[in-house]
C-alpha cells in the first residue's frame, strides 16, 4: 500500500529537474577508461596558462574570464599545464580520495569554542609518489619526486577568488570597480601537503581546498578523459581538451572561445595580423594533437564573416561515442550487413 502511494505521488519540480539531469548524464556518458572526476570549474576556466610551467609571484593578480562559464581572480602567480596535470592525476586516483573529520587548528586549546567549530570536514588524497608518477606517465625516479614537490608548493601558494552567478555580469561589475552580487569564495586549490619520506613508496597526503570540497558535496563534477590529457604534447591542446571533453553535447567550438581558454584577446587592441596568424597555427596544431592522442576522430574548420573580423569555427567529432549514439551506430551497422547480404543474394 505504501509503495502504491509512493508511486502515485507527484514529483516536485526539483525532483523532475534532477531526474532529467540524471537522464542526460547517462545518455552523454562516453565510456571513458579510468576517467578523472574533476570539479567542473577546473575544466572550464582559463586560469591555467598554455605553458608547461607558470609563474609564482606574490604581487601578481589577474582575472581569468571564460564567457558563459567562469570568472576566477588568481593571486600569487600563474598556473601552467603541469599544475593542471597534477590536479587531474590526483582526481583520477579516486580510490585514494577520503573524507574525514579532523580537529580545527583554529579552535582554542582550552576546550572553549567561542563560536569556532572544534572539528572540520576535509577531503584528502592519500597516495604514494609512485602512484602519482605512474598516473601522470612519468618516469619513476627520485628527480621527478622533487618536481612533484615543487609543483605542489606552487599550487599551495596561489589563491583563487571564484565568483558565482552570470560570468558576464560579474565581469561588468569588476570592470566598474564593484564587488559582484551573489556568492563567492577565496580559496586555494589545495590547503596543504604532507609526506613521510621521499622514497617512491612513501605516503603523501594532499588536503583539498574549499572549492574542491564543495564540488564533491554537491556532485558538481565532470568526467575527463585523463588518458588523452596526459598524452597531449601541445600546450594549447592541454588548455582546450578539458573544455571540449567536459561538454559532451557540443560538436563545434569558435576560436573566440579557444582564445578565452588561453586568455588571448582575439581582435583586441593589442592583436595584430602576425599574432593572430600564430594563434591560428597553434590552434590547428592543437586539434591535430587531440586527434593523434585519440581524443577526437577528426575536425574541420569553417570560416565565418568577412575581412579582418573573419572568424574560424572548429567542427569536431569526439573519438568516443555517447550512450545515446551507440544504439544508432548498431542500427547503422546492422543495416549495412543486411544490405550487403541482399546485394550478395541478387548477384
UniProtKB/TrEMBL annotation:
Residues 1-40 are annotated as: Disordered. It comes from the Bacteria. Keywords: Plasmid. Residues 20-32 have a biased composition (Basic residues). Residues 1-19 have a biased composition (Basic and acidic residues). This is Uncharacterized protein. It comes from Methylorubrum extorquens (strain ATCC 14718 / DSM 1338 / JCM 2805 / NCIMB 9133 / AM1) (Methylobacterium extorquens).
